[in-house]
Amino acid sequence: MCQLLGMNCNTPTDITFSFDGFRRRGGLTDHHTDGFGIAFFEGKGVRVFRDNRPGASSPMAEAISQYQIKSLNVIAHIRKATRGDVNLENTHPFIRELWGENWVFAHNGTVEGVGVCEECHYQPIGTTDSEAAFCRIVSELKEMYPAKPSEKEIFDAVVQITSRIAEHGVFNFVLSNGHWMIARCTTNLHYVCRKAPFGKALRDDDVSIDFSQYTKITDKVTIIATQPLTKNENWTKMKNGGYVFFKDGDVVYEIEGTLPEAQPHV
Amino acid sequence: MCQLLGMNCNTPTDITFSFDGFRRRGGLTDHHTDGFGIAFFEGKGVRVFRDNRPGASSPMAEAISQYQIKSLNVIAHIRKATRGDVNLENTHPFIRELWGENWVFAHNGTVEGVGVCEECHYQPIGTTDSEAAFCRIVSELKEMYPAKPSEKEIFDAVVQITSRIAEHGVFNFVLSNGHWMIARCTTNLHYVCRKAPFGKALRDDDVSIDFSQYTKITDKVTIIATQPLTKNENWTKMKNGGYVFFKDGDVVYEIEGTLPEAQPHV
């Protein structure tokens, strides 16, 4: 199983503390060793780094940690391959241009029978079920809305399209266009919204940070992760069929999730 | 004016020697200081690095040089902004998925009145004439050929579409899908095909390399650049309206260019 990491904030934030703990799971504290990828939005542009070496030992991941890029929206993924070869084109996150914006997507789980739709607007480049599902999402959105609709309409449409895909497997994902982030859960997805008063956080590898030294009182930073990255914060566990639409570090729209608890996907 | 660099080979090749000389023009030996970008194909995937800092002093460019990535197709660009702000989404090379492939494009010059076609398949994310022109190319290709045609048909269609765009300005570009590379010239574009017997090359900043120490007898490496990067090799200067389709380091299709010599673009 792969692991997801997302960040959505109201001020450009350095994700290093979370990313360092997260990427240790790629080979050190866990077994997700088939590559990693991370996308940082910067204005309408996006910086993407991918490596098919384990996150924990990749020199690319090391350089990223040292670069301390600040961003409002970040999506990262470490991979344990279940479908598709271990190569660059199969490494999350995936990106497509939709309505003149970069859309970025990463998935954890396996969905069956999405298939390649040859008449669709967007075609997969690699061979993963995840990229095929993402192409289906953006193709259907473009079909439904040739011009960009409101954020609420986007959220509703994403829920509609992805609920159908999720019937065929485990569909935990994070999706962002650089303005907002949508998180969707089948089995495992957690989030924590950090805001004032900021305190200390203790990572699962026992590294700690005092956020109050790095933040302003108005800052809001939401971190989304497959498993909580800190031991002493109040992470919300999402339910099966749950969706959250985050913007500026806040929950804007939410569907709590009413499906029976999904079986863990091994 | 910006500068272009392309590489097309029959064996994965490290572009460091050429890239190092090229990026020195971003701030050291020339004045292209408004960012740089480089895309390395790796299988069907593509690794892209962009920075809006000058190529010569960017830590990102430094890391790339040290990483010594080997690739069959590379496109790089250093920018002196003429249209569009200096930011990440306006930094070449631009990428879109077409027929399930990554298409990568970088442009030197300025083309007028391409405009944004709102019904078109592909929309620009930034505000450059270059990205608008690229979106026009891939949109028209997809319109002409819903499924991927032969390489000759692609070359002919690219010539047809881009000759029309080139009527409205200076349109030097390199374009690749990871299998081949098309170069198109209005004012300045040169190439050199390196093959056995390999000798020494002397860069314009007087750094030299002996390619015979790094190559096999069957290797073919073509370098395309706005201006020749070495002093002692036989670079072919392309003519106004000229096109070359390179594959595996060889010229496969060529249109010599019959238009009157274009005025230098300042």
TrEMBL record, chains A, B:
Q: Which residues form the Glutamine amidotransferase type-2 domain?
A: 2-266
Q: What GO molecular function terms would the record report?
A: transferase activity
Query: Which key words are in the record?
Result: Glutamine amidotransferase, Transferase
Question: What Pfam families does this protein's entry cite?
Answer: GATase_4
InterPro entries in UniProt:
EgtC-like (IPR026869), GATase_2_dom (IPR017932), Ntn_hydrolases_N (IPR029055)
Mind telling me what this protein is named? Answer: Class II glutamine amidotransferase
